[in-house]
Design goal:
This protein has helices spanning 6-24, 32-46, 96-106, 125-139, 154-168, 192-195, 205-216, 250-262, 287-303, and strands at residues 53-60, 63-70, 78-82, 109-113, 147-152, 176-180, 239-244, 267-272. By secondary structure, the chain is α/β, with parallel strands linked by helices. It has one domain (6-303): Alpha/Beta hydrolase fold, catalytic domain (Rossmann fold, 3-Layer(aba) Sandwich). It has an 8-stranded mixed beta sheet, with helices on both faces.
Length: 307
């Protein structure tokens, strides 16, 4: 049973995202710092951290990260989670609800990098920080076959692109990757960027194009680490892509799945009918969100050593 007003949540989320775009270009009355703090509180209030999970800030090779550790964590099991927010907003504190839920479901320690945000730090700063955090995890004893990398929206794209960068730097690949509602193509050329524009409850093509200009800092829209639909993904681990049927990003998520498959990466694409952007956030409130989280964690379990 739905226990949250889903349309109201998405409307408020869209308003706050729009406020971040305004603040990033010096429009509106709020500073970008104020908008980011309000964005964090918005998520914290609606999706509080679950019981039985502790949170600890750590410095990971110069990148601030936060550990989410469930009481029954399987020794050595790790999930690196890359939060969303269009590379403009979002942080580990605001994602404690989802990160804590994933930690409990997978019985894993979850590492959430607080990667640098635009416009202060433009592309490829966020990808660099994600790779640094992953490298730090391996350097501190994590076995790559016992690590899963996941993320949503901008973080969903980085769940692929950061692994491309890590591979190119000679780092061993993790067991699997999970890309939730990935912002995978900053050219925004997928058909659903038009057909679902105005139907998607959370984002629209104009807003995404506006954000991309801020994030790229002059880099080409088809830069492979910004738009992994253009990346050479050969050698990546199995990837699960989950996307909602009402997302403007749907076509580009399908394109990403096709690119991975063409590069011989074991790939699974799950499309959830009628769902909006990162509906996983509504786990505990919406049955479809619970199913998506369960499916994602089952995929992770499938590729991790037995507990």
């Amino acid at each position: 049973m739905v226990s949250i007003d889903v349309p109201a949540f998405y409307q408020e989320w869209a308003n706050r995202s729009g406020g971040a775009f305004d603040a990033a270009v010096g429009e509106g009355s709020d500073t970008l710092e104020d908008v980011r703090l309000a964005y964090r509180k918005f998520f914290q209030d609606r999706f509080p951290a679950p019981d039985g999970v502790t949170f600890e800030p750590v410095d990971a090779g110069g990148v601030a990260v936060e550990w989410a550790t469930p009481a029954d964590a399987v020794a050595g099991r790790h999930l690196v989670y890359l939060h969303g927010g269009a590379y403009l907003v979002g942080d580990p504190q605001g994602y404690r609800g989802l990160a804590g839920t994933l930690a409990r479901r997978l019985r894993a320690r979850v590492l959430v990098p607080d990667y640098r945000l635009a416009p202060e730090a433009v592309f490829p700063a966020a990808v660099e920080d994600a790779v640094t955090a992953y490298r730090w995890l391996l350097d501190h004893g994590a076995a790559p076959e016992n690590v899963v990398v996941a993320g949503d929206s901008a973080g969903g794209a980085m769940a692929v692109s950061a692994l491309v960068a890590a591979r190119d730097q000679g780092l061993p690949m993790p067991a699997a990757s999970i890309a939730i509602s990935p912002w995978a193509n900053l050219e925004h050329t997928g058909a659903t960027m038009r057909t679902l524009d105005g139907i998607d409850p959370s984002v629209n093509r104009a807003g995404l194009r506006r954000a991309a200009e801020l994030v790229l800092g002059g880099a080409p829209q088809d830069s492979p680490l910004a738009s992994p639909v253009f990346a050479d993904t050969r050698g990546l681990p199995p990837v699960l892509i989950q996307v909602g049927g009402h997302e403007v990003m749907l076509s580009d998520a399908v394109r990403l799945a096709a690119k991975l498959a063409e590069d011989a990466v074991p790939t699974r694409l799950d499309i959830a009918p009628l769902m909006g952007h990162v509906w996983h956030l509504l786990a505990g409130h919406l049955p479809a969100a619970d199913k998506a989280v369960t499916d994602a964690m089952a995929f992770a379990e499938e590729h991790l050593p037995a507990a």
